[in-house]
Amino acid sequence: MGFKCGIVGLPNVGKSTLFNALTETQAAQAANYPFCTIEPNVGQVAVPDPRLDQIAKIAGSAKIIETQLAFVDIAGLVKGASKGEGLGNQFLGNIREVDAVVHVLRCFEDDDIQHVANKIDPISDAEVVETELLLSDLESLEKRVPAFQKKANSGDKEAKIAANVLGQALELLREGKPARLTEPGDEEEQRIFDQSQLLTAKPVLYVCNVSEADAAKGNALSDAVFEKAKAEGAEAVIVSAAIESELVEMEAEDRAEFLAELGLEESGLARVIRAGYQLLDLQTFFTVGPKEARAWTVHKGAKAPEAAGEIHSDFERGFIRAETIAFDDYVALGGESAARDAGKLRQEGKEYVAKDGDIFNFKFNV
Q1: Is there a contact between 316 and 362 (Cβ–Cβ < 8 Å)?
Q2: Which sign, positive or negative, has the C-alpha torsion 213, 29, 100, 188?
Q3: What pLDDT is recorded for position 354?
Q4: Which of residues 81 and 220 earns the better pLDDT score?
Q5: What is each CA distance from 165 to 17, 100, 184, 199, 237, in whole angstroms?
Q6: What is the pLDDT of residues 218-237, one digit of tens each?
Q7: CA nearest 61: which of 344, 362, 287?
């Protein structure tokens, strides 16, 4: 399952630094933590999860494999992108292909780094990108909604649903608000809304790039971004690109001490990766044994056969049942055997909804 977060931002805000730090950090990890560059501008990174180390230790696993998330360094943007200015068409095309948008905003002062607008205003910066996405969506829906309304008037049931939900999105766009604030009334409306591929419907994570001194608590600029995110139903995290660049150059054992001196429990990149994972409404399940402990990704709400399909399509096609142990039970009891003896290993069928942290052993027949 390929989940992609597209990293966007204006020049000199730290977008490339963030992407490079993400990919370099992962590339420097041990072989047990897979890293690959799919394309020059795509990095596959491991999602940090301390639970994996715990179950691997209990099972005596020889190898640990974390679940993955892809980050895409999106082509640059200039004002007028929605009309094809600069790399506008490429930018909009790349945004359409990702599942979520990671928007890097400059929240630091530095006279040596010139801002493209000659002022430090992350809200204004965000609006430049958002305006181009909004204008593209607006142009699209102003053509499509009247067509759906016309068909709906002639009795077309699906057109009536589309006219309703996309009409709601169009009104939001006309008010200068993103389409992700649309509230589909039922599953059919949700399906049609998802199929519309609106750019402003994609979930957004704002990354506030602050100075080293502000890395622990942020500043007034990042506070404003967090308020904006809350109002939009988006997410925000604080990162110091300067710190992340230093961390990349350090030995792994020195990083924790360096972060502690700065009042940080983990790197900003770890927060970005985890936030991106949560933004996409994903959850983790595990498989564990002597050979390897492995984390897998599935959407929240997925049933057991779908989770099995993440491992192999045959597992889903021939699904019989899932032997399931909750993570807390596995750790508290000290492994599969003790969990089985305590009655904590459950036999679950096709309708079981996978929970975050489930440890699965799938039974199948093809």
Answers
A1: no
A2: negative
A3: 97
A4: 220
A5: 39, 21, 6, 16, 31
A6: 999 999 999 999 988 788 99
A7: 287
